[in-house]
Design a protein that fits this description.
Pfam families: Hydrolase (PF00702). This protein is of the alpha/beta class. It contains nine helices and six strands.
Length: 227
């Protein structure tokens, strides 16, 4: 049994593509509602790219700034010409994204089994706490641990060391749970165990020779294996 499960938030517990409906409404005025799903995908990809680039540059900013800058870029790239008020609404939607359907019940199973669970995110502590609270998930976590506390982004080894230091656990007793291969590889590289939540059957894992300890289709599958 793992001593602690550290759950990534965006894309693992919370559906980052839950913004598509709002995008459809905002893009409808320009007749580009059909681009909503593509916009969401590019926005998410660019958000992560910006965090990686800032990490390499040593130019840390809050994850929300990466998100806003990625939104601005995607608007330009797809020539959707969103008004500032639309961008503000979309950023507000990002703060109330929905949880994946099985997240609450799976986390409840871990709580009932006495497993220590923490949220571990690139987002700031305030942002992640608010997001999990509105999604009905916050009660299942012992605490929220943010990379903002060390001003680095995943997959910098420093953030995984910070996770262990905060929890006072050894690498072998710590599991990172994430749908993001870069996060899984980062955790494994830092000596942690890691489970990959492969939410799409089409999703490939990076061929780096660093594999997850476990692969599951969703959090219910994780609860079956580790709960």
């Amino acid at each position: 049994m793992a001593t602690v499960l550290a759950f990534d938030v965006y894309g693992t517990l919370i559906d980052t593509h839950g913004v598509v409906t709002e995008l459809e409404e905002r893009l409808d005025a320009s007749g580009k509602a059909a681009l909503a799903a593509e916009f969401s995908r590019r926005w998410r990809d660019k958000q992560l790219e910006y965090s990686f680039r800032r990490g390499l540059m040593g130019a840390y900013v809050a994850f929300s700034q990466c998100t806003r800058e990625a939104l601005e870029f995607t608007d330009r790239a797809l020539q959707t010409h969103l008004a500032d008020v639309d961008k503000d609404h979309l950023m507000a939607t990002y703060a109330r994204l929905p949880a994946f359907p099985e997240a609450a019940t799976a986390l409840a199973r871990f709580s009932a089994a006495g497993v220590r669970c923490v949220a571990f995110s690139n987002g700031t502590g305030e942002a992640v706490t608010g997001l999990l609270e509105q999604a009905g998930l916050l009660e299942h976590f012992e605490t929220v641990i943010s990379v903002d506390e060390v001003k680095r982004f995943k997959p910098d080894p420093a953030v995984y060391a910070h996770l262990r230091n905060r929890l006072e656990v050894t690498p072998g007793d710590t599991w990172l749970i994430s749908s993001n291969p870069f996060d899984v590889i980062g955790a494994r590289h830092a000596g942690l165990h890691a489970a990959w939540v492969r939410r799409s059957l089409d999703a490939p894992f990076d061929p780096w020779g660093i594999e997850p300890d476990m692969t599951v289709a969703d959090l219910d599958g994780l609860a079956e294996r580790l709960g």
